[in-house]
Amino acid sequence: MTTNARHESDDEGDAGPGTRERIVVATSRLMQRQGYSGTGVKQIAAEAAATLGSVYHFFPGGKKELAVAAIRHGEREFAEELARCLAAAEDPADGIAACARSLAGGMRESDWADGCPVASTALGVTGSVPDIRRAADEAFTHWRSLVAERLREHGFAGDDARELAYTVISTLEGAEMAAQVARDEAPLRIAGAHLARLVGLYAAAPRS
Amino acid sequence: MTTNARHESDDEGDAGPGTRERIVVATSRLMQRQGYSGTGVKQIAAEAAATLGSVYHFFPGGKKELAVAAIRHGEREFAEELARCLAAAEDPADGIAACARSLAGGMRESDWADGCPVASTALGVTGSVPDIRRAADEAFTHWRSLVAERLREHGFAGDDARELAYTVISTLEGAEMAAQVARDEAPLRIAGAHLARLVGLYAAAPRS
Q: Looking at this predicted complex, what is its ipTM?
């Protein structure tokens, strides 16, 4: 569910395999840096090396439909990274701290341009475009479910796991935004350490 | 510094006292709901019941200068609320949880339309408008300083206070965004409880 989403739906139209995916990736990248209102369909077509006709063929709903697809793309990208970090660590607290470091590294590599594509796309239109608000909520919900599932696997009580997952994802989101405006990894590095400490408080049994 | 910022600079021009403040508040409210790119100077003038000439009189730098003023306005508004919550509680952990509840209440009152005005204005233009990025960073820095100061007053070690302040503000920011897209207080309620627990871990001495 978190991966392999790229193989489908690329050969459905007249624009050839890969075009739909290129359009979605271009939309995600542009809205990540410019937001929904700052991004135009013509710019998306140019960035994706696609015709406007091709963009509207795949996305007859225009920019709103493009934004929802871009949010789902960003959701899958971070879900893959989150699942990878959580699976690679013996202790979920370490996995969460690793995820914060991974976010910080990615932002530094982009010279602090690439924050959360879901937040950048949705903020500013959550009140006016319900489909975008819902897609962003579904992204956060999915990310939380990955964290909660990992915590439950490690013996955390169901309610603790569910609530900790809220704070893990909220804190990573907020720290990513703070890191972006500060052009500094500190907010994410500190968030990772604090989240590991918080999660450790709720662990079912001490792990050596 | 966190309050009384509204008395100055309103009688400097031809548009009469209060006009500049009305323009700033209108910009803040519009960008809070629509973001920077989704808001136009004409709309700001209309919302503020001011002429375009008056807007450019007070803000010759146009939309970018308006956005910076709006971010500073949002910064002061939340700084006042944060200071009030922190001052009203005996224990800083309780004050932080109260602040999360206050944010949740405000968002519910606005039918989930009014998220963080600083984040909504800055996200999407942090890479392209350095003045806006810096203003947002200054806002987060100021809010963190209020939290850190309160923690130090309560005997927290300097480094602990400084780092906790990062996570308090990051978590509140992220939880506010999650609450907005979910139209649900849960992310903020949970964040407040977890932050109180985290802060409690670092307290210099147990407080009964």
A: 0.90
